[in-house]
């Protein structure tokens, strides 16, 4: 089989003379290491350095090989090539790379870290169930609005004194997902809830640490050292919690009263139980619920935390958002999804928070399901591919001022909101974020609701210039921990 593949490569290479990326390319270009990539991401965020992604692509081109320890990966850099790969060539680039760390999360089940038929049926079910909840009796919009009130109260309770908003925002966002999954929210001081949030937060940090990365590339050695144990323990504990909750829901299951995702899954499982082949088993339930939990909490919460930091740093922008809120939403009334259409400036600011915040700089790795010929190269089957999202969100050919926080990127000369093709924080193509609609709704309702209620400003003695937008590097780019003060607006 191996010889056949080699022979195949040879014939195809003779025909088209492509280079085998990750093999021949290395000969005429310097090696790019993960450190180079991380440095570039850091420098991009330091606007004073005025560096941008073209630094990487100018040096190495739009497509290059990256060496992580013994492993070679292909990086795609820039809007055009990433769109071509993920959208036009979706069949060639639409698989997930299941690295050893991702395998700990999923054992190749669920949605986020799965492929093939399991991925297809789980993703289809996830999208349709989330859509149904959006239109159900208690819509997702109402669930988010319900969560906004306790969040505002908790912010108020600090009486203008500096506090770190991290845990509170995580709790609010996580509660939206909990309400969708389990059909109920938790009090912020509930010890079980606090433990869940802590484990999710810890895992997001751990997944990007060098020690856990080591597990990806030197798996045997890292297993001996037990570097991945905490991550594994957290995942097991989270799955145990989901399993217990689903056992309770099974007892109360009522097709006329579907409270959440778990109910919907259990009903589907019942329907499919007579089929010879079904993917609606226990392992897929636990993993897809964990996917929702993990992918749905950290991402949205981090984006809101970036948003508050940017509002403190750019008070003139905060003021313009608040003026627009005052014009369209009465005091005491909660924002609704409908309001967004009337509020182009706020919409543009939220889009810019996502662009500039760039929370998933390296996307989630894809891989090639077969040998792929692309832009004159042969990328062998099973190669990990990084569609480098930073290079799209900061692409100099697509944005007027890529290294500045500038809401005008999303406004025309008349102040109307304009879409931007290179706005790709949710990625693109068949693996694009499954929670995009929910995330957009949450970002608008939480951000607008918080800015309606409060003005955010830095603690005494800290100037806006002191506020750093340099991220802490990990799997997601999170703001360096900061303190904030709030002044109620009414
Ligand atoms: C601001 C918030 C969010 C951002 C920026 C974001 C971004 C992303 C990105 C970049 C991917 C990888 C896409 C790819 O592989 O090409 C992804 C995948 C995914 N996201 Fe999100 N996400 C967000 C919120 C959410 C929420 C709220 C949920 C769940 C309710 C969610 C669920 C998922 C799932 C299940 C996948 C895997 C899709 C698949 O592999 O088919 N995300 N997201």
Automatic annotation (TrEMBL):
It is found in: Membrane. Its cofactor is heme. Pfam families: p450. The keyword Membrane applies. It comes from the Eukaryota. Keywords: Heme, Iron, Membrane, Metal-binding, Monooxygenase, Oxidoreductase. CDD domains: CYP2. InterPro entries: Cyt_P450, Cyt_P450_CS, Cyt_P450_E_grp-I, Cyt_P450_E_grp-I_CYP2D-like, Cyt_P450_sf, Cytochrome_P450_fam2. Belongs to the cytochrome P450 family. This is Cytochrome P450.
């Amino acid at each position: 089989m191996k010889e056949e593949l080699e022979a195949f490569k040879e014939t195809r290479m003779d025909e088209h003379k492509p280079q085998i990326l990750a093999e021949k390319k290395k000969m005429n270009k310097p090696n790019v290491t993960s450190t180079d990539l991380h440095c570039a991401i850091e420098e991009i965020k330091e606007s004073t350095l005025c560096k941008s992604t073209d630094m990487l692509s100018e040096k190495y081109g739009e497509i290059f090989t990256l060496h992580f320890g013994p492993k070679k990966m292909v990086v795609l850099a820039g809007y055009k090539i990433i769109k071509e790969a993920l959208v036009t060539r979706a069949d060639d680039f639409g698989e997930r790379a299941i690295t050893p760390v991702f395998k700990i999360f999923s054992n190749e089940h669920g949605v986020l870290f799965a492929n093939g038929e399991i991925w297809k049926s789980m993703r289809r079910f996830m999208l349709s169930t989330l859509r149904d909840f959006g239109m159900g009796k208690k819509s997702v919009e109402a669930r988010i609005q319900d969560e906004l009130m306790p969040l505002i109260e908790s912010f108020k309770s600090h009486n203008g004194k500096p506090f770190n908003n991290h845990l509170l925002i995580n709790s609010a966002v996580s509660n939206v997902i909990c309400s969708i999954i389990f059909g109920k929210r938790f009090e912020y001081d509930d010890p079980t809830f606090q433990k869940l949030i802590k484990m999710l937060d810890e895992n997001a940090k751990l997944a990007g640490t060098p020690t856990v990365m080591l597990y990806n590339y030197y798996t045997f050695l890292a297993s001996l050292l037990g570097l991945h144990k905490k991550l594994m323990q957290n995942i097991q504990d989270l799955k145990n919690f989901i399993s217990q909750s689903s056992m309770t829901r099974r007892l109360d299951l009522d097709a006329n009263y579907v409270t959440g995702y778990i109910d919907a899954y259990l009903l589907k499982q019942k329907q499919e139980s007579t089929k010879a082949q079904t993917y609606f088993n226990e392992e897929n339930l636990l993993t897809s619920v964990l996917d929702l939990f993990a992918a749905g909490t950290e991402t949205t919460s981090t984006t809101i935390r970036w948003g508050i930091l940017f509002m403190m740093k750019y008070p003139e922008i905060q003021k313009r958002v608040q003026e627009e809120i005052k014009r369209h939403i009465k005091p005491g009334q909660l924002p609704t999804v409908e309001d967004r259409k009337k509020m182009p400036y706020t919409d543009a600011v939220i889009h810019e928070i996502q662009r500039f915040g760039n929370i998933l700089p390296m996307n989630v790795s894809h891989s090639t399901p077969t040998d792929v010929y692309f832009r004159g190269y042969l990328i062998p089957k099973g190669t990990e591919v990084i569609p480098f999202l930073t290079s799209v969100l900061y692409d100099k050919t697509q944005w007027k001022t890529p290294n500045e926080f500038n809401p005008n990127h999303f406004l025309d000369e008349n102040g109307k909101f304009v879409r931007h093709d290179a706005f790709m924080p949710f990625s693109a193509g068949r693996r694009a974020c499954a929670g995009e609609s929910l995330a957009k709704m949450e970002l608008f309702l939480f951000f607008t609701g918080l800015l309606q209620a409060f003005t955010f400003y830095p603690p005494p003695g800290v100037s806006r210039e002191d506020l750093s937008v340099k991220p802490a590097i990990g799997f997601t780019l999170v703001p360096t921990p900061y303190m904030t003060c709030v002044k109620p607006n009414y």
